[in-house]
From TrEMBL:
The keyword Transferase applies. This is Branched-chain amino acid aminotransferase. It comes from Mesorhizobium australicum. It is an enzyme of class 2 (transferase). It comes from the Bacteria. Keywords: Aminotransferase, Transferase. Its EC number is 2.6.1.42.
Length: 290
């Protein structure tokens, strides 16, 4: 398969490690047909995999939220990850993606049959890129609510919505979308959580069930708080962001990255984002390797 040629890839499925982008779904697989799948994303770089246990726990919680029956413990996922990473000798950075999906459906095929839950762990080489900044624009697309989609899960079926928000933003010349919730408050970007800084205070949207309250977001708040910044979760409007001194985003992929343009307004990467980035890297290197 084409993606296999892109970078070193190993997938653990059904008790074995397989090289490459191994084919594991059929046209009759429930996940392929109706989209019942969950995943998580963590990073290994420079010998450490920060917050890997939290990512492993979250993939199990996501599976349960979709009615799947996870058949691995978070500890087993962590152990398997460190085992698989041995296959990446000489590589500097690897993406860690555990997934669960439903192979069969229940009543009329629609709900997932939890007894058919399957697991795989895909590891692939992915260099740590650290963008110096990115631009955002307010998206016409909104985050669904918990009543309309399983927003408490990191589920594949949520991502076509993020995808169309990012595509629409790119078509207007921006790197990413600033996605609002159904009440019109800022939720997150198409691929990360969002923060603003005003008069030295660090603010981020309060979780209200519509967006992923990220692991990197929580870690960054703790680190900035311990350092001495006030960090507050609060309902935030587009205006709050337009009037911010700094904007930055967090996510496991690129960690902490400043926003350097919102709509027509240029922003400089500011001291809080810079400090958050430094603190994250320092903390990450202090975590233990498996
Ligand atoms: N929001 C969305 C939509 C994401 O895809 C991600 C990345 N997984 C995040 C936020 C950040 O979450 P985390 O820090 O747990 O990676």
């Amino acid at each position: 398969l084409a993606a296999a040629a892109q970078s070193a890839t190993w997938t653990f499925v059904d008790g074995d490690w397989n090289e490459g982008n191994v084919a594991i779904l059929g046209p009759r697989s429930h996940a392929m047909w109706l989209g019942t799948s969950v995943f998580d994303g963590a990073r290994w770089f420079e010998g450490v995999a920060p917050d890997l246990e939290l990512h492993a726990a979250r993939v199990n919680a996501s599976a349960i939220a979709l009615g799947l029956a996870p058949n691995m413990t978070p500890e087993q996922i962590v152990g398997l990850t460190w085992d698989g990473l041995k296959r990446f000798d000489g590589k500097t950075a690897v993406y860690i993606r555990p997934m669960y999906w439903a192979e069969h459906g229940g009543y009329m095929g629609v709900p997932a049959d939890p007894a058919s839950t399957r697991f795989c762990l895909c590891l692939y080489e992915s260099p740590m890129i650290s963008p110096t900044g990115f631009s955002v624009t307010v998206s016409p697309f909104r985050r669904p609510t918990i009543e309309t989609m399983p927003t408490n899960a990191k589920a594949g079926c949520l991502y076509p919505n993020n995808g169309r928000a990012i595509l629409e933003a790119k078509a207007r010349g921006f790197d990413n979308a600033l996605v609002l919730d159904m009440l019109g408050n800022v939720a997150e970007t198409g691929s990360s959580n969002i923060f603003l800084v005003k008069d030295g205070h660090v603010l981020t949207p309060a979780p209200n069930g519509t967006f992923l309250s990220g692991i990197t977001r929580a870690r960054t708040m703790t680190l900035l708080g311990d350092y001495g910044f006030t960090t507050t979760e609060k309902t935030l409007s587009v205006r709050d962001f337009l009037e911010a001194d700094e904007i930055f985003s967090t996510g496991n992929h690129s960690k902490v990255v400043p926003v350097t343009r919102m709509e027509s307004r240029d922003l400089q990467p500011g001291p809080a984002a810079k400090k958050a980035r430094e603190l994250y890297w320092e903390w990450a290197h202090s975590t233990s390797a498996g």
